[in-house]
Design a protein that fits this description.
About 40% of the residues lie in helices and about 15% in strands. The longest helix is centred in the last third of the chain and has 23 residues. The structure holds pyridoxal-5'-phosphate. The site of pyridoxal-5'-phosphate has 13 residues, from helix 3.
Amino acid sequence: MAELAIPPFLLTPGPITTSMTVKQAMLCDWGSWDSDFRAMTRSLCEQLVACISDTGEFVCVPLQGSGTFAVEATLATLIPQQGKALVLINGAYGRRMTQILDYLGRAYVVLDKGDYAPPRADEVSAILQQDSGISHVLMVHCETSSGILNPVAEIAAIVEQHDRRLIIDSMSAFGAIDIHATDLRFDALISSANKCFEGVPGFSFALLRRTALEASAGNAHSLSLDLLDQWRYMNATEQWRFTPPTHVVAAFIQALREHAAEGGVAGRFTRYRRNQQRLVEGMRQLGFTTLLSDEWQSPIIVTFLSPTDHYFSFQGFYDRLKARNYIIYPGKLTVVESFRLGCIGQLYDAEIDGLLEAVRDVMDELKSVQVQP
Ligand SMILES: Cc1ncc(COP(=O)(O)O)c(C=O)c1O
């Protein structure tokens, strides 16, 4: 039998490094119909809703599949066929929402700020003022392709002022960035199991304003992505409509326990911010430059510009870091070469310091390989 390698650290935006106890929670098989599993689903939904609201105005609809499944299902369920969306784009995940709308055949317009500039309230206001046909505004909370934390409260206020509906893709932010329905108005917030709650991949979820969901009958084009149908079935039976990812749910229940033990959203924010600041400071000392100014930098993931030195190649850098047990992420910018380092998951000072040491060694190695005859 091959020797067991030490598991690598994932410096990525999800899947992320999970705790041993979260992994161990999957060492049991669950019957999807059984009352124990039904109780787990109920608890998962209640705990997620409690993160944003305690008024009964919101419900949680979990869905099998990765985050994109929940984004597509939410847009399909909440935006009527005659509706029209304004999509705020500053990266890959905003762009992906337009792709989804193309598939769904929903009308939309965009405010495209390029790779990393934030959308601002005055720009959104001008578009909404001018186009009364826009029913929904779609935005990404933390645009993971650059790491920018978009001004969600500012946008929510202007959308509410214009009496339109807001849908937030909070995939990589929810669980670590505080967002509460009493502070800002939205109809949907979407996320998944394997981001800031530190579960494993396999399901996603939408937190939906109950009245908006109840009014959505007939909108969805797809049986498996109809969140109203999934919600009604769950209400009636406490079961998922189709085979649920039982082990992933069990892992998530444990992940929620650990999230609460760390101090919930505030506790997680503190650790991730510390990781990000330690990482940025260390990388700057090694000569790297961040894409974003500190003002817009989220504590979730940081984009670094690739050095322009002739000896640097992303693949060489990646392979050598991997050999040292650190998995990093390629960049997703359209204009400049970059790479990304995630700050979320089971990462603490020791892992960040270990990564920085590995980056220094790898850069020395890349240089020395190049200077050899
Ligand atoms: C902001 C955002 N939206 C959507 C997605 C898509 O999620 P998935 O890759 O799980 O389908 C991601 C994935 O990282 C994301 O960061």
